Amino acid sequence: MKDFEPFHHFTPKKFESRWISPANIAFVKYWGKKGHQLPANPSVSMTLKNCVTKTRTEFEISDRLQVELFLDGKIEDKFSAKIRKYIETLPFPWIQNLSIKIHTKNTFPHGTGIASSASGLSALALTLTEYMYHSVDQQPDSKFFSRASCLGRLASGSASRSLFGGFASWGDESDEFATPMDVHADFMRLKDTLLVISGVEKTVSSSHGHNRMQQHPFKEARFSQAKAHYDLMKSALKSGDLEKMGQILENEALTLHALMMTSPDSYTLLKPNTLTAIEKIKEFRRETQLPLYFTLDAGPNLHLIHPEDSKISYFISEELKGLSEKIIEDEVGQGPVKW
Ligand code: PMV
pTM of the full predicted structure? Predict the structure, then answer.
């Protein structure tokens, strides 16, 4: 936390902070850690536009740290305790004298592999960063978002990448925080049509999965594959090579789930309809040569990555929609905003 020296000591003040922060979908996955919340391999993701968390946070002076999280207006004891645990680990003495009330709303179902932790915890990280800047009377500077990314990463690795619009990578320029990645203009127009196969909350957390990588028989092979995928993905994203991007994207999604299914205490998050949809997508691509690709997060729901195309949209609504509970239309987003 060496970059936070200017914020280690100040007298806490009352403050309110409001942020809208997006989810992201990883094209190369972070799965496995080293050290304290550092990634075992580099990852890259597309920031979403419509899947966002909107927060309003109140900071009050208190004789001890108190944290309350309200989701859609209802107190959530489980999340309040989780956030408190995270905040307690931050090395700032002033944190012990705050009562923090977080009012949060998602535009999408949480806990289903649509990275609500990335949007929710990046919003929290922005809030804490804004609070620190405000408390020492400093205007946001060029380090504002990388500091927020570092705080986000300590809460949930994928949250580190939600601080930037377009595409962001983590574990390449730095393991401590993510950085924005320049990509070919075509990729800035990509759509993500989310096929919500099941909105039921998943039973196995990502932290459990990351920890399982420590004893995974394919650990070393996976980390070197991920590094190679990252380099290939980075050059495909820069040159505008949609086909190469799609090949790595799908392989990464299937590898992530294969790792879960082959870990020492194995688990499966895919549902029969996930597999049916994957087969249909591959068949559609074989028949039409159109660039429709899929990826998955840690859940059964498919992110369909594609350029705007009426034949692709028709196929999704005719052939895939019926396999899902719900469709969410999303696309590349510009990153967090204050409201
Ligand atoms: O950020 P975490 O600790 O919830 O891990 C998320 C990992 C994946 O979403 C599965 C992949 C990624 O890179 O976002």
Answer: 0.97
